[in-house]
Specification:
alpha+beta; 3 domains; 10 strands; about 35% helix; globular; binds heme C
Length: about 425
């Protein structure tokens, strides 16, 4: 068996074991306090406030990418994923279930080794080495020498697992991080099903999910119907979060998912669902929520790539969107959603009726009109992924709402959606 041939000094690889306020935030806050005490000019204080905001967002980025909130309790102590990974998950397998590798975390020697084939991508030891480099997006490993061999002793997950991907600039699945982009290749069900702690009935349920989908209610209500992993970008100004608009700010859902789904240490309470979950005796979630939210609010929906749509058809499609298609009656304003003023009955979703209805499992029992900025980027569409393309979305509306759009109108409307 070939193993990784490069050497790295142990010191250069550091896992950010726990979140702590970065020095820059403290410095910015201190300067701000000092300045206001000295009666500093308002331009200066505005600049400093912006600097403090940027520092908080930077902190949130570290949390988004690298913080597990102590969820090793779930992924290591309960699910024993560290045993599975170190014995059976080589990089080829890892990539095949949609895990991504952060090329910027790879030292030059590793890049060369992958390129010239001297690094064995069919060996689980290579996965452990990548985890030691903190290079697997959304997985955080603790690698320790056991009997002289690097051994994965703890593993946890971060937000980036589902809500980041990479740009494939080095190889498929290996590239620069794209935070906020949903990882639609990731197969969380298949990954959790590898756990030796999961029984056969549950394995069968998890295997029905498929790539790009996750059921964040399954372990709460016992029902089983996954939703697509949504983008975590483009949410600035939207005060209804999730497909069903359960929370008024991102932090609401961040707390839910960090505790209830990732297994982080802390508490989530949702009276509307009669839900109260506490993990552990310390709270590793609450203090991080403001910075985490600040970072997410900086994540802009990506612009449609030049040449990816027909601009002339899209201009005609805009008229259909606002006119015959009646789309703008719900997809309104700069973010293309009326979420801040209302939610909609389940029947307004073109993916309904479904069984079990996702809305019925939520706190609001309704759906939020989906924001559409960057919609070109994250097929398939609707909460259940039932529309494979934007053309399929238009067909679904045209048919179910009897809009009577002609074929050219429908095609133009799809081009417009691709341009948003
Ligand atoms: C295992 C995959 C997974 C992980 C890990 C995960 N999420 Fe999610 N996330 C989802 C799914 C699935 C949904 C859709 C749930 C819904 O809308 O009902 C979602 C929804 C969201 C939304 C709502 C988006 C919108 O359009 O309103 C935000 C924001 C979000 N997640 C942020 C996070 C953050 C921050 C973390 C880390 C604390 C995280 N997620 C961890 C899968 C995941
Ligand atoms: C009555 C309100 C309403 C109208 C009218 C409406 N939509 Fe929607 N739209 C929604 C809701 C609610 C959802 C979320 C459905 C779901 O996820 O199941 C949605 C979802 C979508 C999505 C999927 C976005 C994603 O992230 O998956 C697209 C695309 C879309 N609508 C386009 C359109 C177009 C095009 C029209 C006009 C033909 C239109 N909508 C008319 C309420 C509306």
């Amino acid at each position: 068996m070939k193993s990784m041939t490069y050497t790295t000094s142990g010191e250069s690889i550091r896992f950010t074991a726990a979140w702590r306020p970065s020095l820059s935030v403290i410095a910015a806050a201190a300067t701000l306090a000092l300045l206001s005490a000295c009666g500093g000019g308002s331009d200066d204080s505005a600049a400093l406030a912006r600097a403090a905001q940027a520092a908080q967002a930077e902190q949130g980025k570290q949390i988004f990418r690298f913080d597990t909130f102590g969820d090793e309790a779930q992924w290591t102590d309960t699910l024993r994923m560290h045993e599975v990974i170190r014995s059976a998950v080589d990089p080829v397998t890892a990539l095949s279930v949609g895990l991504k590798v952060d090329a910027e975390a790879l030292p030059a020697a590793v890049v060369a080794g992958i390129q010239n084939g001297s690094i064995d991508l069919k060996s689980p030891a290579t996965t452990v080495a990548l985890l030691k480099l903190n290079a697997v997006v959304g997985l955080k490993g603790t690698v320790e020498a056991v009997n002289g061999a690097d051994t994965l002793t703890r593993v946890g997950i971060t937000c980036a697992l589902c809500h980041s991907t990479v740009d494939n600039s080095f190889a498929p699945g290996i590239g620069k991080r794209l935070d906020g982009w949903p990882n639609r290749d990731l197969n969380p069900g298949a990954i959790i099903a590898l756990s030796p702690a999961v029984d056969a009935k549950e394995v069968a349920a998890l295997k029905t999910w498929g790539a790009g989908k996750f059921d964040p209610r399954h372990n709460v209500d016992g029902l089983n119907k996954p939703v697509v992993i949504p983008p975590a970008y483009g949410l600035d100004g939207i005060h209804r979060i999730t497909f069903t608009g359960d929370g008024e700010d991102i932090a609401y859902w961040n707390r839910y998912v960090a505790v209830a789904e990732m297994g982080g240490l802390g508490t989530v309470t949702e009276p509307r669902l009669n839900l109260s979950i506490t993990h552990g005796t310390q709270d590793l979630v609450s203090s991080k929520l403001p910075a985490l939210q600040a970072y997410q609010l900086t994540l802009k929906a990506p612009e449609a790539p030049a040449g990816s749509f027909d601009a002339v058809a899209a201009a005609r499609g805009k008229l259909v969107f606002e006119g015959a298609g009646r789309c703008a009656s719900c997809h309104s304003g700069a973010t293309f959603t009326d979420a801040n003023s209302r939610l909609h009955p389940a029947s307004n979703s073109m993916a309904e009726p479904e069984s079990p209805s996702y809305a019925s499992r939520s706190a609001t029992k309704q759906y939020r009109t989906s924001p559409l900025k960057g919609v070109w980027q994250h097929a398939p569409y609707f909460h259940d992924g039932s529309a494979a393309t934007l053309d399929d979305v238009v067909q679904a509306y045209n048919r179910k709402q009897a809009l009577g759009l002609t074929a050219p109108q429908a095609a133009d409307l799809a081009q417009y959606l691709k341009s948003l």
